[in-house]
Design a protein that fits this description.
It is a single chain. By secondary structure, this protein is an alpha/beta fold. It has one domain: 3-Layer(aba) Sandwich (Arginase, Chain A). The chain contains nine helices and eight strands. The protein has an eight-stranded parallel sheet with strand order 2-1-3-8-7-4-5-6, sandwiched between helices. The longest helix is centred in the middle third of the chain and has 20 residues. The N and C termini lie far apart (about 45 Å). Bound molecules: manganese (II) ion (MN). The site of manganese (II) ion (MN) has 7 residues, from loops.
């Protein structure tokens, strides 16, 4: 039986940020997603939504060029602001829909979530594992490292980073489930194997289907079915034919049906407390591909909040009769 959601109001929070990777554009995604009707659609299906606007990122420290890791000070400072904003909204009993932003946003988002719900589990939908450390990263971009900042077991591999003192690791590797992986670095594979992280690659999706994987993984990391759920949804987890407007597309990804099913099942638990939408980049594609990306992203997002493909019976619908 689904647990009745304690957090009935959805608080929407934009995180207009792109310094966790190299392309401009993800900082504009909150604007484009709102423009594509993400809030109107959630309201139309009967949700109460409060738009908290965007996290104010106007006065971030300036990083020196050519540092080993790109933009650590701005990424650290921006994510501290995000973490505080997420905690603040959760404390008013709303859930949070965070519109990123590149996927470095998960550092602030999960950290802020864990301050209020320390027992959370993380469902990480992505083509990539995003668990590099600053010492293993090939790209030097922090959007490929958020889980290394957050997981307690990885701290012995983490160097000190400027402007990340606030970020105390707050989850265990046992609290993480991956879905959609298909581009994992050797170092990341070693972490996954070493710590036995529950990782579902695209091969597994094809072999078992999303239905079995989501059932299996939720019952493994949360056998009592009571823990708050954090979904960190990188749109590159979906197939690039569906979400082409993103910075690091990898062919052979999750289908629209896979993502809808996953989102519907998470909604049914009644325990989704934070959803991140990451890596939408409206500047990296044609207008047509951008619109396609927005449409598919909005569609899947609404499924996390009760929009069922089998549709919802309207509570007060009177069937018209001839007079
Ligand atoms: Mn990612």
């Amino acid at each position: 039986m689904p647990v009745h959601p304690a957090r009935e109001v959805i608080g929407v929070l934009g995180f207009p940020f792109s310094k966790g990777q190299t392309y401009d554009g993800t900082e504009q995604a909150p604007h484009y997603l709102r423009d594509a009707g993400i809030i109107k659609n959630l309201q139309a299906q009967g949700n109460t939504v409060v738009d908290h606007g965007d996290v104010n990122l106007e006065s971030l420290p300036v990083d020196e060029p050519n540092t080993d890791i790109r933009n650590p000070k701005s990424v650290g400072t921006a994510n501290k602001k995000l973490s505080d904003a997420i905690s603040r909204i959760l404390k008013t009993n709303q859930s949070v829909l965070t519109l990123g932003g590149d996927h470095s946003m998960a550092i602030g988002s999960i950290h802020g979530h864990a301050q209020v719900e320390p027992n959370l589990v993380v469902v990480w939908v992505d083509a990539h594992a995003d668990i590099n450390t600053p010492l293993t990263s090939i790209s030097r971009n922090i959007h490929g490292m958020p889980l290394a900042f957050l997981a307690k077991e990885l701290q012995e591999y983490m160097p000190d980073m400027p402007e990340f003192d606030w970020c105390k690791p707050c989850i265990s590797v046992r609290d993480i489930v991956y879905i959609g992986l298909r581009d994992v670095d050797p170092s990341e594979k070693v972490f996954i194997e070493k710590f036995g992280i529950l990782a579902h690659y695209m091969e597994d999706v094809e072999k078992y289907g999303v239905k079995e994987l989501i059932e299996r993984s939720l019952s493994q990391i949360d056998p009592s079915g009571t823990r708050p759920i954090h979904v960190s949804f990188d749109v590159d987890g979906m197939d690039p034919a569906l979400t082409p407007a993103t910075g690091t597309p990898v062919p052979g990804g999750l289908s629209l049906k896979d993502c809808c099913y996953l989102a519907e099942e998470i909604a049914i638990t009644g325990r989704l407390s934070v959803l991140d939408i990451a890596e939408v980049n409206p500047l990296l594609s044609s207008e047509e591909d951008r619109n396609l990306t927005m449409t598919n992203t909005v569609n899947v997002t609404t499924k996390f909040y009760g929009n069922r493909r089998k549709s919802i019976t309207p509570p007060d619908y009177e069937l018209p009769r001839p007079q």
